[in-house]
Amino acid sequence: MTALISLHNAAFNLIERAGNWLMPLFARFTFAAVLLLYYWNSGLTKLGDGIFGLFSPSIGAYSQIFPKQLEAAGYDVSQFGVFHWLVVMAGTYAEFLLPLLIVIGLATRLAALGMIGFVVVQSLTDVYGHGATDTKTLGAWFDRFSDSVIMDQRLLWVFVLVFLVVKGAGALSVDALLRHRHAATQA
Questions:
Q1: Number of Cβ within a 10 Å radius of residue 183
Q2: Could you tell me the pTM of the whole model?
Q3: 70 contacts: CB under 8 Å, gap ≥ 6
Q4: Residues contacting 140, CB < 8 A, separation 6+
Q5: Using 50, 70 and 90 to split pLDDT, how confident is the model at 144?
Q6: CB neighbours of 50 closer than 8 A, spacing ≥ 6?
Q7: φ and ψ at 83, to 5 degrees?
Q8: Measured between alpha carbons, how far apart are the two ends of the chain, in Å?
């Protein structure tokens, strides 16, 4: 029995050491495979026309971020102020920048923390701004269904992001490259 326990421990110690190297990379891969294009496409819907669309968000941006306020303004974006423009532009740029930082592994912990905040705000906007309160969309934890968009899917998204906040980007990342360069200059 002791030999079996020793074999078990040796095998899983090896897996754990490999996991310390592989899991952050796999978390970034999972984020890229599932959410990178989701957020980039969402960001593209918020940009205005032409090159100046980078600074002039579309009406779709306002309808996604401030749905009730836009409706109350009669869909006239000119009634919105600088605050609204700043929020829309910050959200739009975040949809491009934060996922890119996570995928390449640069400032990963901060980018993942930013994405957690983004997912929370996105979920609250879906519930309170867009009225996504039906059982199928909102869902519930600990029920027998695992396919709700907000409670189930976004919990899994946040788990991947929390993993990256805790563990960092891993060995194959720009963060690791910069850390090694910094250590070499300190030596």
A1: 9
A2: 0.88
A3: 59, 62, 63, 77, 80
A4: 148, 151
A5: confident
A6: none
A7: -55, -50
A8: 48
The CB-side HSE value for 88 (13 A sphere, CA atoms) comes to: 29
Cα distance between residue 127 and residue 2, in whole Å: 55
Which pLDDT belongs to residue 136? 86
- For 47, phi then psi, to 5°, come to -80, 145
As a whole number of angstroms, the distance between CA 14 and CA 174 comes to: 26
Which residue carries 């949809």 as its tokens? 95
Q: How many residues are recorded in the chain?
A: 187
Summarised one tens digit per residue, pLDDT across range 59-73 is 989 999 999 999 999
Token pair 């974006």 is at which residue?
A: 77
Residue 57 three-state SS: strand
In tens, the pLDDT along 145-155 reads 888 999 999 99
Return the structure tokens found at 7. Answer: 């074999």
